[in-house]
């Protein structure tokens, strides 16, 4: 049997980037990330992994979202009006005021926030150390963001989320706790749900 050499994609050859997936890659790699590429430039950072999603802070979110759709993006149906999928990544456009209220941090027009998911707080610390990220502040939880905000360079930020298990009642969704147990209203067993923060 003749073994054929691995054929690299045209994009990889054209860019003269021939890299195979790193064995030490953290588990939060975006599921849409090409498996054979590692050397990826995430603007404003030294990070070589695609983010799970990108938040764009802009005074004109509708216009910027339309520009991305015109470039080949697809509006996120059923989501917020200014969410666009582009090349496998969700872009979320919002005003500086929205992000300031949502996170408690004073983002400015033009800032970019990359969101990554990791498996644990320990992996978050390793991620920050590996890419020499500077902790700016701890975000307050309002729209799911709670924890350290890192800056990679002026105007470029990273939020590295870790999973959190919350136990809720199927009949009374206002009941939410971090511990297993029964609903205090109907005595049903609380159901675990996982989210990232």
Q: Would you write up a description of this structure?
A:
- There is one protein chain.
- By secondary structure, this protein is α+β, with helices and mostly antiparallel strands.
- It has 2 domains: 149 residues, 2,3-Dihydroxybiphenyl 1,2-Dioxygenase, domain 1, CATH 3.10.180; 32 residues, no CATH class.
- The protein is 17% helix and 28% strand.
- The chain has 4 helices and 11 strands, in the order αβαβββαβαββββββ.
- The strands form 2 sheets. Strands 2-3-4-1-5-8-7-6 form an 8-stranded mixed β-sheet. A 3-stranded antiparallel β-sheet has the order 10-9-11, with no helix packed on it.
- β6 and β7 form a beta hairpin.
- The longest helix has 10 residues.
CATH architecture annotation name of the largest domain: Roll
Helix content: 10-25%
Number of helices: 4
Ends distance: 51 Å
Low-confidence stretches: 1-40
Rg computed from alpha carbons, rounded to a whole number of angstroms:
20 Å
Strand order of the largest sheet: 2-3-4-1-5-8-7-6
CATH class assignment of the largest domain: Alpha Beta
Q: Structural class of the helix and strand makeup?
A: alpha+beta
Largest sheet: 8 strands, mixed
- Helix and strand sequence: HEHEEEHEHEEEEEE
| CATH T-level topology of the largest domain | 2,3-Dihydroxybiphenyl 1,2-Dioxygenase, domain 1
Anisotropy-based shape: globular
Number of domains: 2
What do the pLDDT scores average to? Answer: 74
How many E-type strands?
11
Task: Kindly estimate the percentage of residues that lie in beta strands according to DSSP.
Answer: 25-35%
